Amino acid sequence: MNASTLIKRATLLGLTTLSLTAVASVAQAQAEVNFIKPETFADIGWSAPDRETAMKQLEEHFKTVAARELPGKQLKIDVTDVDLAGDVEPRVRADRIRILRTVTIPRMSFSYTLSENGQVLKSGKADIKDMDYQNTARNRYFESEPLRYEKKMIDDWFAKTLLNRSDIARATP
Which residue range(s) make up the domain with 154? Predict the structure, then answer.
């Protein structure tokens, strides 16, 4: 093989890779998640680092599910309230632990807009909750997964509201 052929093949490979990357980015959903006045949320964590971590994990989850389930569409979420599963209770020492009880269900309120090519497909307000969150048989996330109850609740909302399905697969980053 001569140098000219190698250059042509390398150029073709580079252009092909660039084209595939462009197609993939167009097909993937774009999600924007905003937390409106998180300081007023019912329960997004006990400390400032806990709150930041929880908001980041919820944002990443919305984006992961949207990218997988809504290719080519845009989703805007404005979260107005979060109440994580369980309650944070003081312990004998200075640390705190989240205690899960049947009455401390996860809840979330947000408005959403789903659009494609600038046209609104669906929009509204959502007040979601999972009254049966402790039924581990229904939760597809591992027990070690942070915010597993909230993620399942979001998945259920996606399936029912945006996809008209009864269920979706576990979102993996």
Answer: 29-162
Neighbouring residues of 33: CB distance < 8 A, sequence distance ≥ 6: 58, 59, 62, 63, 77, 79
- What are the beta bridge partners of residue 43? 83
**Residue range 124-137: mean pLDDT, rounded:** 88
Distance CA 75, CA 66 (A): 7
Residue 155 lies in a domain: yes
Please, what is the Cα angle at 65 between 59 and 66, to 5 degrees? 85
Residue 70 lies in a domain: yes
Residue 90 falls within a domain, yes or no? yes
Q: Which residue would you say has higher pLDDT here, 56 or 12? A: 56
SS3 50: helix
Strand, helix or coil for residue 43 = strand
Q: Is 115 exposed, middle or buried (0-12, 13-18, 19+ CB in 10 A)?
A: middle
- Tell me: pLDDT of 31 over 90: yes
User: What would the pLDDT profile of 162-172 be if each residue is shown by its tens digit?
Assistant: 998 776 765 65
User: Distance of alpha carbon 104 from its chain centroid, rounded?
Assistant: 21
Overall number of domains in the chain: 1
Q: Is the pLDDT of residue 118 over 70?
A: yes
Has residue 99 been placed in a domain? Answer: yes
User: How do residues 52-66 score in pLDDT, each as one tens digit?
Assistant: 999 999 999 999 999
